[in-house]
Amino acid sequence: MTVNFADIEKLARERATDPVLMACVETHEPALIASLDRAMKNRLIKPVLIGDETAIMNASKEAGVETRGWELVRSSDPNHSVYMAQELIHDDKVGGICKGVFGTQDFLSLLLERRLGFRVHPNLVSGVMVCKNDKLDRLLLISDPIVNPQPELMDQVAILNNTVAFAHKLGVKQPKAAILAAVEIIYPQMPVTIGAAVIAKMADKNQIKGCLVDGPLSLDVALIETAAKVKGAPGPVAGHADILIGPNLATSYGVYRAFALYTKSDYGLLVLGGKVPAVICSSFDSVDVRYNSLLLAVVAAK
Description:
The protein folds into two domains: 1-120 and 274-301, Rossmann fold (3-Layer(aba) Sandwich), CATH 3.40.50.10950; 126-268, 3-Layer(aba) Sandwich (Isopropylmalate Dehydrogenase), CATH 3.40.718.10. It is globular. The chain has helices at 5-15, 30-41, 53-63, 78-90, 104-111, 153-169, 191-204, 219-223, 225-230, 249-262, 287-301; strands spanning 20-25, 45-51, 71-74, 96-99, 126-133, 140-143, 176-180, 212-217, 243-245, 265-272, 278-279. The chain is α/β, with parallel strands linked by helices.
């Protein structure tokens, strides 16, 4: 069973019989260059750098990485860099895409244009944080902290399905998914509790497969067995969740950032549901976080 990023790296190595070609847009950050170099040396990816050649060379020099032999597609305009990456995706020339120096929402708005190569109708695209916290004995998948600001009920179901499918790829055969709210009961004054209960009931009726689902559950009850017992929350998910599905992006992003900033956690970020996986990290993220995200992309691509 996969329980940490060392296991994920082993899984990626096993699956990457050929390195994944990765379109890297606006690769002007030393931390990104360093993570790409690490993944390439481990024969997991082969980067295709898209952006300003001088900026890429300067970032490479700062990172202490020699990139002269790497494939380079010159572009002086960030938007054009995304479109060039989209063409590579459309033509099946790359197996993943990676964001560099580019605002996340601006990047996503270009990436998700329907006429281009990334989106696959009718799939919903969603984001996931995969986290290994030192207080948990398992991986934790948090969705969606990146893409969908205010998902409707069936969008939440699609986000759950994307996350469950990826959990299966990570080796979690029957993930336990908690649909988050502030309380563990259906509370009409909180509409998100009604939606969470509907999703849990859909799973009971086998409309959602491959996982166990419960909701509404608060964060502490979802993750901590003693909290679930104290609050009288029954069932196999309470206290043992592998997946957290937030009611909106603000909630999921807040949970992701809390784990990232205030706990001892290894983590990576990925966008799922497109033609290829997309690595979308923050400029704040370290080389290790970016490398972890590339590992996730390799697993998703294979």
